[in-house]
Structures are given as structure tokens and as C-alpha cells.
Fold:
Amino acid sequence: MRQPWRVAIIGGGITGLAAAVRLRDRAPAGTEITVYEQAGRLGGKLRTGELAGQAVEFGAESFLMRDPVGAESAAVALVRRLGLADAIVHPTVGQAALAVDGGLRPIPGGTLVGVPGDLDRVAAVAEPAADADRDGGRPLLGPDEDVAVGALVRDRLGDPVVDRLVDPMLGGVYAGRADDLSLVTTMPALARAARTAHTLVGAVRAAQAAAPRAPGAPVFGTLAGGLSTLVEAAATASGATIRRDSAVRELRRTATGWALTIGPTRDPELVEADAVLLAVPARPAARLLAGPAPEVATAVGGLDYASVALVTMALPEPELPELSGFLVPATEGLLIKASTFFTTKWRHLRRADGLALVRASVGRYGDETSLQLTDDDLVATVHRELSTVLGTPLPAPVASHVQRWGGALPQYTPGHLDRVAVARAALRAAHPTLALAGAGYDGVGIPVCVRSGETAAEEIITALGGSGS
Structure:
């Protein structure tokens, strides 16, 4: 194996950048790392913009502070590695609500992504089915079984719990429906507990007990300077060569490694690398895999995605409740599926002039016709629906921004993680210096993406080291 190694990372989102940092930290000195990003900017769904003279997130807003077993999340570890720990801030207001029956009701406590561990606490929002969650004398799930979240919860607790609690919670994260999404992928802690628990309420309690949280410990965090500071710091710390506006069109195996075809068809650039890490969504990854690993390409390319639009408005001194925001069940018939009151939720965003930043999310998987509206129509509709939900006319926005994220959120059907494991195993066997990472395979959220990129980087290091370096 030639030294130094040449590693190509395709995709400049947080997954690819976390992989680049890990390679810089763990690979031999002198390793050449190049990040290819087809867009003109890095960060993927992490994008800090500006509205009415203030920094605001146009993509992901925050990260989990803890991982599923209660340890520090991969996002927090990366923030510390990059010297940004002092910039971590937490929500000042954590209580959110559900928009149901024409009003706002606090989201009940004691749930796991809306699945209750105490039926009495959710009854005011969604009456559970009487005596449905009975102990049948066996675990809810078999050792290798995966089911749709909606199917399990409907069977054990009834339709209202799914439609009014679980579905809006999952919709806020995945823009998908509980009846389509994999339990193992979207709620891994609950899936693990369901392999031993005989009731769903018992499984929720067991999952919560397995990852206890200290009273008052923050669940979420963000960076005071905006999440784009994380992107910039990771790019710098990686020491990688960053190639923006560089679309990789083809990936080909060579006798010594990999050949990448970059740029327009009329004037292609050929680049060689010893290893390649694909940190792009499933469909572009499948196109690149079609040559060297067609079976893996077929498996990966089957993943579907939802598109969303984020509408942010700057409102002069509106009457807002003391909430971080609210979620909207699809049964309410509104265009918006969630809203966040940025300047209420985050103290560091509050302004002396009373200008409030409010963001709403539009677009559900399988029902995305709303995204065909113009930006002006989206803003007008969101403004009208927010006024209706809040029960008071909101002032006209002094500024607004519409961020459209096409194909942004993976839709994990049951069996997703098993399919990914099979695809990765086939890839390792045939091409150990080619790795997959990102939300399309391992789950959404900044910590998951960071961990996915770091794990793929470790696999690349092992593969290259095992080749005789």
C-alpha cells in the first residue's frame, strides 16, 4: 500500500466532515483526505442563515446531549473535540404542545416518542384502548423481528394514541407516518425492550429505565454561534482538501484502489484514491455503486425520502404562549406539521425589541402537494394557520425565509437495518476500502450522523492497515 494514504470522502455534510476529522485523528500522519461536495457549501442539512439581522437555523436546529444508553452523544464529543464546548446552549423553555381539537394541549410527560409509559398521563390528549395492552405471556417482538411503529401501537393501545401522539411526534422528526416507519430504526431502545417485555407500557418503562436521565439534565443542545460553526470547525480540524461544486459522477475500481470521475461530462476530471467513503444520500450512493457493486446499489437505492419546507418568519411583538413550539397531527387537516418558537425556546436568540422568530415545517411523506405552493403562498398559509392554532391574529412578518429540503428525510420501512447490514457486509467482502455512512443507513439526527461517519472512517483505516501498510 502506497504511503501516504489517499482517502476520498464524497459528501460534505456533517457525516462526511466527522469522518474526515476521525481520519485525521486516527490515520497515519500524512494521509491525504479530500472531501468532494457537489453543492457550493458544506454542512448538508446544517445551515445557519440570517433573518431580520439575526442568525437562525434553516436546517437542523439542535442535537441530543446523550446517546440511547445515557452516555455523552457523538455530537457532544465532536463539539468538545473541536473546542466548541463553551458555545453549547440549552433550551430555556422545554415544554411543547399538541395542536388538537382546535387548541393547544401540553405534550404529556412519560412517553417515548409519544408511546406512553403511563396511560393515565396521556388520557387527556388520546384515550388509550381499554385493556388492550394485556400480558399475552410472551415478548412483544421476536429476537429478529421488526414492525411498523403504528402497527404495534395501534394493536396494543388503539388508534387515538397513534394518530394524536405517536404520529405527530414521528412526523416532526421524519416527516413520515407511524404506520410506515420501522420500530427498530426509529425507536431502537423501545425495540430492544420489546424483545423481553410482554406489554407495550412495560417496554416503554424498561427502555426509559435503561437510559436514566438525571433530573433537570438538558436533553438538547445547540451552539450559540449557530450549527454552521460546527461545520466550519470540523472542516478546519480535518485538514482535508475541500472541493466544493465538485460532483462525483462515476466510481470505478482499479488495480490499486479507486478512480473517481468528477465534474461535467464535457470536461471530466479523473482522480485516484486508495479508499472511498460515501457520505451521500442513498440514491446518489446507489448511482455510484452501480458499477463496482450493483447488488448493493439495488439494495441501497430502494430507500425513499420525504421532502419538507421550513418557513421562518420574523414577527414584531407577537402574542406567543410560553412553549418551545407545537406538533400537529395529520388528522387536524392543517398544512403545517410542526412549529418552533425560536426566541421563546432559546434565550440566546431573544431580542430587546421583541421581534420573535417562528419557524414552521411543511410536508409529509406521501402528501407533499403543499410543497408545490410558491414561497409567498407558503408564508401566507403558515401565517394564517399559526394564527388559527394560537387563537389570535399574528402581526404581519417583517421578514420571512422559505428553505426547501427536497428528499431530505429517509423513510425507514420495517427491516431497514437488516437490509443495510446485508448490503454493508457484501460491500466489505468485495470492496473493503469502500464504505457507506449517513442518515440513509443509520438514522437521522446529528449524533447518529456523526457516529456513522466516524465508524465508516474506522473501517477505512482498518481496511487500509490490513492491506499491508
